[in-house]
Amino acid sequence: MSLRFPEAVCCGFAAMLFASGGASARELKVCADPNNMPFSNEQGQGFENRLAELVAKDMGATVKFVWKPEWRGFVRKGLNAHACDVVPGVPANYERVLPTKPYYRASYAIVQPAVSPPIASFDDPALQTARIGVQLVGDDGGNTPPMDELAKHGLTHSIRGYMVFGDWSKPDPLAPIVDAVAHRDVDVAFVWGPVADYYGARETPPLRVTHIDSMKPMTFSISMGVRKHDKALADEINRILERRQSDIQRILAEFHIQSSGPSKSATAE
């Protein structure tokens, strides 16, 4: 399961581990994928790198990133094995953690060339003849919300799948599905919003990104997660997230990520 793509489901996150060396030496250890933009990378360029630094600074701590690929079993082997204490970037209804208050909302998106007539829903007749890119998870290739919806609409005849984990041996493993639209390998693609926003804005010319924020389960409130008994830690992070919300939104905007701000809901919207 990938937490970066909700119900895929949402896809690099970081896990924070606190090392106590006295009040003046508090350290925020962050397990982050070294090659998972726009979320994180080894150069600290991802927005979750930035958010971890923001939280740590507010705590009076310093950040130490611990690099590991974000693959299956990350929460079990990290957070639940007490190797990590906090996991940013999880769906707010993720049952394996105690979630903080959501700090942004994201949805799946439709990516197209800017010159193409806009497609805004799965009912658009243009999809009947379009070459469609969609993100897939697992060998069955059918467990993301857009894939499920395409199947319901009988739109599986011309689908090209792109794994949400991508080819980790190459730079920007999440970019190929967006590149495929820019290179006209597909006519339209259904992509997790932060990935669509970030890479769509980087194409020349930029691509059209239309968020599917009016359908369930396409929109998700995003939180940080701690172990279920770590309420004190969740409360501390909640105070920081509330206090620094304007800074969080500024960081997201720098990455072109469309966010409707935090949501009080803990479920897919």
Low-pLDDT runs of 5+ residues are 9-16
Major sheet characteristics: 8 strands, mixed
Output the radius of gyration: 18 Å
**Overall CATH architecture of the largest domain:** 3-Layer(aba) Sandwich
Strand content: 15-25%
CATH topology of the largest domain: D-Maltodextrin-Binding Protein, domain 2
CATH class of the largest domain: Alpha Beta
Task: Classify the secondary structure makeup into a structural class.
Answer: alpha+beta
Coarse morphology: elongated
Count of alpha/pi helices: 7
Span from first to last CA?
A: 20 Å
Would you report the number of β strands?
13
Any idea what the CATH superfamily of the largest domain is called? Periplasmic binding protein-like II
Helices and strands, in N-to-C order? EEEEHEHEEEEHEHEHEEHH
Question: If you average the pLDDT, what whole number results?
Answer: 85
Helix content: 10-25%
Q: What is the number of domains? A: 2
In short:
With 269 residues, this protein is α+β, with helices and mostly antiparallel strands. 24% of the residues lie in helices and 25% in strands.
